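Project standup — Tuesday

K.O.: blocked on the structure for the chain from last sprint. Re-posting the sequence here as requested.
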Amino acid sequence: MAELPKEVATQDTPAVSPSGKYILAIVPGKLNGFDTQSFQILDPERALLYASPDQFMSRDVTYFLWDNEDRVWVYSGDRGTFFWENVGAVGEWSRSVYAQSEVPAPAFLKRVRPRWHQR
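H.V.: unblocked you, prediction finished:
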């Protein structure tokens, strides 16, 4: 695989948000015997701010990344594209469905999955 841009997080390499206020960490898990991935948002000292309850199957192509507005994006080959944004208090993050929003996708998703991210 080609080297991923710094805004993309993997299980081995967390990604720092553009503002530097957050770290996106990928967490492996299991669901019904299948390997999954989820994410956590940490502060710069690595204290937990938010743990996503969503799990994404590891067998499917999945990307976890930041956009320029400190939103967390997840593209899942089986579930679609979602983003989370801070909605006030430090640990409060709201999940949105990309297809039901007007928010443009990050450049990385437009490049690697252009069919699904045209705006």
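K.O.: great, moving the ticket to review. DSSP finds one helix and ten strands in the chain. The two ends are 25 Å apart (CA to CA).
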